Amino acid sequence: MTDHTITLLIVDDHPVVRDGLRGMFATAAGFDVLGEAAGGVEGVELTLRLDPDVVLIDLRMPAGSGVEAIAELTRRGARAKVLVLTTYDTDSDTIPAIEAGATGYLLKDAPREELFAAVRAAAEGRAVLSPAVASRLVSAVRRPAAPAADTLSAREREVLELVAKGTPNREIARELFISEATVKTHLTHLYAKLGVKDRAAAVAAGYDRGILG
After folding, report:
1. Which run of H or of E encompasses 134?
2. 3-class DSSP state for residue 185?
3. How far apart (Å, rounded) are the C-alpha atoms in residues 86 and 108?
């Protein structure tokens, strides 16, 4: 890969972050930023169209989350390697991103040389984890299974909170900027984690276990 220019797509909802990353890679040899996207949905579309070597993606974005975008790219067999670049390092962020198919996970406070090295490694298919994230993943593997309140992802909690307010799936999708199909997927997952079969039981379990209220 030393003689190969690594092509990139930047996916982040903050224009200043996108500009900063583009400018940073413009000063380093061996990188070419093909485009930018402000959310996960657009990021998937551009990745499939531009076919970059590496996608740098944030996680929490209004126009489609990073985890949903990673899962969709994995499902569609995209060639690009996905490197998460975010400020979030909680278990509910890191583990779903890795499970969805991310090649690496870095925090935005990483030094520029570390970021360049991570992108090169990701382009070669090597896993890249910031020390803080690696430590969290090791701890998650070693500790006993957590109660359901700790295993629900941030998005699943948001869906459950809206369900508790009586919000229908269509309105949940509009509120969270996701599709109705994705809402149903989140409901299926949280039903399984809570050991319930319907919305009413999920809400009851949510209050009973301290997830809601």
Report:
1. helix 131-142
2. helix
3. 5
**Which residue has tokens 């998937």?**
44
8 Å CB contact between 65 and 93 = no
Detail the DSSP E strand segments found in 51-167. 54-57, 81-86, 104-107, 128-129
Q: Where are the alpha helices (DSSP H) in 6-130?
A: 15-26, 40-50, 66-75, 91-100, 112-123
Closest CA to 176 of 121, 187, 49: 187
- pLDDT one-digit tens code per residue, 62-86: 888 889 999 999 999 999 999 999 8
Structure confidence by residue, pLDDT tens digits, 161-205? 999 999 999 999 999 999 999 999 999 999 888 888 888 888 888
Residue-wise over 55-80: b if at least 16 C-beta within 10 A, else e?
bbbbbebebbbbbbbbbbbeeeebeb
Please report, as a single letter, which amino acid is at residue 42.
E
Helices 112-123, 15-26: inter-axial angle, 10-degree rounding: 80
110 alpha-carbon distance from chain centroid: 18
Sheet holding 128-129, edge to edge: 31-37, 6-11, 54-57, 81-86, 104-107, 128-129
